[in-house]
From TrEMBL:
Taxonomic placement: Bacteria, Pseudomonadati, Planctomycetota, Planctomycetia, Planctomycetales
Keyword DNA-binding (UniProt): no
Pfam families named among the record's database cross-references: Sulfotransfer_3 (PF13469)
Protein name (record): Sulfotransferase domain protein
Origin: domain of life: Bacteria
Record keywords, A-Z: Transferase
Gene3D superfamilies for this protein: P-loop containing nucleotide triphosphate hydrolases (3.40.50.300)
Family matches, as InterPro entries: P-loop_NTPase, Stf3_sulfotransferase
GO molecular function: transferase activity
Keyword Transferase assigned: yes
Length: 387
């Protein structure tokens, strides 16, 4: 048994093992003051196995703070004056194909998206990049450990990490501090969240979108599964925002979401997460996400929403993107087509993870809890329909 464990251990890249054991997770670029406030909100409780990770975050926050202070001094005023151009928000559950859709849309050079470094260091990336990027590039895994998708500091990334760092308010923090999950779970939609948390989150989203747009001088395409439950909040900030939702068969989402969470939680966590609660967490999170989505979807003005199916996007990507551009009244797709086709050719050999079958009892629970999604999208509930 010990020999087999050693073989498995050696098969994991060193950078990935270091990231899991000592990396700062999703809090690399937090400022020291915000780190202290976040820790105070969680009673300074870090379980023993994660003390090294907490020390790493503390040191990183002390290094980040001077850059953040200087950056605010240099750019703060101009960021506040930046008029945000119509952003596009990609919506959809975790593991529904949002990353693939985001990467496809970002081939259009008339738009921009925050990259991984910017989401890791949202308050300091403009001045700190020259210092941190060479160091981080050497230790950043070349592929995401949960799905083998290409990973680098320059690849488009979810803005949720940046918002958690800036606002100290994100339901993703429930994976960092599971003992306080009840509070952070309210940050999925913010409908019942503490008013101060909601206001701080809105200010952070406004700031980050304006800052990244100013950096690239182009309108943004943003992607965070969490935003699927925040349509109302987003429209309060950006009334002309456009929304692109991607759906996928709920059974496929469940299997992939559960796998992803099992891989990410040990990397992000500072407290022990009871893995026997993982199935419950996935089912509840998805249900709450889409209850909020369907409750708020009607708030989107005409011409500002389009939906694609993952199953159709993977078979006819060009056709689906053409329809997206037409429905959302975006500039001509023809200018983006060559780069999109080149990207598809380059990534054509990507192979999805294979997941274990879903037990019958779990399938029954999924059907009961997610019935409204099966009904809305017309997906079969027979597992044999899946590939």
């Amino acid at each position: 048994m010990s020999n087999s464990k050693e073989i498995i251990k050696k098969s994991i890249p060193l950078t990935t093992r270091l990231t899991r054991g000592f990396g700062p997770g999703c809090l690399a670029g937090i400022r020291f003051g915000d780190w202290c406030k976040l820790m105070a909100a969680n009673s300074f409780h870090v379980d023993f196995p994660y003390w090294g990770k907490a020390c790493h975050i503390t040191i990183s926050s002390l290094c980040t703070s001077p850059f953040a202070w200087a950056e605010n001094l240099v750019y703060g005023s101009s960021i506040k004056k930046t008029k945000v151009e119509t952003p596009i928000f990609i919506l959809g559950s975790w593991r529904s194909g949002t990353t693939h859709l985001h990467n496809l849309m970002c081939q259009d050079e008339r738009y921009a998206a925050p990259d991984l470094f910017q989401t890791m260091y949202p308050s300091s990336y403009r001045l700190a990049r020259w210092w941190w990027e060479p160091i981080l590039s050497a230790v950043t895994p070349r592929k995401r450990f949960m799905d083998n998708v290409k990973m680098s500091l320059r690849e488009p990334a979810e803005d949720e990490m940046a918002l958690g760092i800036l606002a100290r308010a994100s339901n993703s923090l429930s994976w960092v501090f599971p003992d306080n999950a009840a509070r952070y779970d309210e940050h999925l939609s913010f409908e019942n969240a503490d008013e101060k948390d909601r206001d701080r989150f809105k200010q952070s989203l406004q700031f980050f979108v304006a800052k990244v747009q100013q950096t690239f001088n182009r309108p943004l395409i943003l992607k965070s599964p969490n935003h699927t439950a925040r349509i109302k909040l987003i429209l309060e900030l950006f009334p002309d925002a456009k929304f692109l939702h991607i759906r996928r068969h709920p059974y496929d989402v469940f299997r992939s979401f559960q796998h992803m969470a099992s891989q990410v939680i040990p990397v992000w966590g500072l407290q022990e997460f009871e893995m026997n609660h993982l199935e419950e967490m996935v089912i509840e999170t998805y249900r709450k996400l889409y209850q909020a989505y369907f409750d708020q979807k009607s708030l989107i003005p005409a011409g500002q929403f389009h939906e694609v199916a993952y199953e159709e996007l993977t078979v006819n990507p060009i056709q689906e993107l053409e329809q997206t551009y037409q429905t959302l009244q975006l500039p001509s797709f023809e200018l983006a087509r060559p780069k999109v086709e080149a990207y598809l050719e380059k990534t054509g050999d990507y192979r999805k993870n294979k997941h274990v079958e879903i037990p019958a009892s779990t399938r029954k629970r999924i059907r009961e809890e997610w019935q409204f999604c099966f009904d809305a999208w017309g997906y079969e509930q027979d597992l044999s329909e899946l590939n």
